[in-house]
Amino acid sequence: FRVAPPATLLLKRAARLGRRFGITFYDASFLALAVELDCPLVTADGRLFDRTKALPQVRHLSRIGALA
User: pTM for the full model?
Assistant: First the structure.
């Protein structure tokens, strides 16, 4: 398992990402964790994807392919 950094650091990163991309703090919190852990953030939210697709961690569910 990977361990996330202290919550304070994630909260600050989430706030920065939220302002940078114009996304909700809720979405930015998941994005901050994905960036910190360098793992994919898979979303079906078109608005979130459109605003954050420049980041390598962000993937749209429709582009993932079959899960089964």
Answer: 0.83
